[in-house]
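Re: beginner question about structure tokens

> Can someone show what the tokenized structure looks like for a real chain? I only ever see the sequence side.

Sure, here's an example I had lying around. Input first:
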Amino acid sequence: MPNQRDEAADDSPADLPCLEKLDSPTGSPPTASLSSLMELENCVSNLSLAHEIVVNKDFCFKPKSPPTDSLEGRVTEIVHRAFWDSLQEQLNTDPPNYSHAVVLLQEVKNMLQSLLLPGHVRLRSQLEEVLDMDLIRQQVDHGALDLPRLSAYIINTMASLCAPVRDPHIRALRDLQDPVELLREIFRVLGLMKTDMVNFTIQSLRPHLLQQAVQYERTKFQQILDQQSASLDYTSAWLQAAASGEAMAVRAQSDSPAPDSRGPVSPTAVLTRAYMSLLHWDQHDQKYPETALMDRARLDALGQQLQMLVLEASVLLLTSAHCGGSVFSLQGFVGKLRPAIAALLEGSHNREADLKAALLGIGDVVLQQVTEAVSGQGGAALPQENLDLLRGQISELWKHNNPVRTLIGERVQGFLQAMLQGGPAKRSPELPASLRLVSAELAELGTAFERIVHFNRTVFGPFFAPILRKLLFPPGETETAEDSR
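And the corresponding structure tokens:
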């Protein structure tokens, strides 16, 4: 069962991790005691757990069991089998040896007590009375231990405490006759019940955490920064790169005679560009901004989904352009083609060779389905040179500078930027025609991305402000920066 975490920020000095700066040579980093490092790790762990609970509505703990075909799984199975075989031998002696069984009963009692709520006063008292370990030891000494009666009480107590989803497990326990197998299953089901209790507690805490989340994360993050000499170096570099890119874009538009050319660089535009860059971050680059580190797994996953959507939309656009509306508008054609494209693209984002192979397979599938659709309608077959050209253009989509892929990517970037600039209360911007076929998936991705960005900006706005002020408004210039939150 996971360790208990802080439910709210504690402003007391005792809650602050304290790294002891011991004597060290000049220029070398200060050293820290093991206990201080553990305190810092605990602070980071508390912050990560609270953040996960707040941003991931599906977050829950699951029982951990190693794969049966792994080394850990095989060792675990051998150790467990030896443990329960030893208990079986003790109970099979004449008279039975209950020394090991008494220890297990004590553990069962402790686990049941951990599942009790403050209002379970009567049940707690009854548990102490029936599973009185001193009395049980006396019964063992006099050969009067009634193990079936105790087992029945334990099962009934579990039935009164478990979630409805565990009722089948409880019924299965009642059918077991072998005491060793029964104890083994009792421990297994109690483990599931403890996990259920932890997840119930998380669900109960979520509304309270949501109310305090911004201030709590800010406070905890500041505590961590107080112990870090590097401070926000990666965040500063991330924002500086975005500011440079935005400045270049502004200069490019300033040279244009268009009437909507923009003025000075906006802090909001810099943040939008910075967050957009996280969707294309190199997974092997460890210089990730500290302020977005807790969301890196989510943002990396969204970036992979985005790449797959761009490729899928590119394939659909090429197919539509080559085959014309007569084929592409056939009922069921797109609905049959899209799952095949998505299945072949799955898992192809990590290696260039995998993407090339996937696109070759997609080209064959597209040509097959186009040919079947045309023949099914009784129309004339498409010229072979057109089909070969379509296959070739699809296979070229692996290149990042491919014109079609670049066009679709720019449209997607524009859509996501519009969502970020619109804010959480405004409706999604209208999709360009080239993205209508993936509109549902893109809107879902954009909503998830916007929620992460909005919460991150709200929490870390005060940390961004001085960095942006230094980047965009050097000393001596008038500070008219927008609120970075």
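Each token stands for a local structural state, so reading them left to right follows the chain. The longest helix spans residues 179-225.
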